[in-house]
Amino acid sequence: MAPGALRAALRAIPRLYGVTDATSATGMPDGEYALGTQRVFKCGGCVRLATGSLAGSVLTMDQALRNFVSLGLDLADASNRLSRYPADYLGEGERGRLEPGAWADIVVLDETLHPVAVFAEGEAIDLH
Fold it and tell me: How far apart are CA 103 and CA 118, in angstroms?
């Protein structure tokens, strides 16, 4: 989404949240990939069908966080928009937050907002 459109959406929707429609091509070089039974083609930041129709993206949640922060949102607000607000929408009160009784799904970021550690339900996940 273009920065101007996202800024307008943020003004219009107070609890606007972000999700990603990332495909299996995420993190991979440009080329041909499978999306279910369809063949898709990754080029740059998007994934398209052979017809040219948009089929998905390669947006990761950490990049979505950096995108929100680059628009001027503070880190806590940007984080809530990618964790707490989507979980709340789904009625998942034990996810998307760091509170007693929550699932302890945590991503540790470096100063450039890139992941350095991931924990799912409190257990470390190997990033490599």
Answer: 13
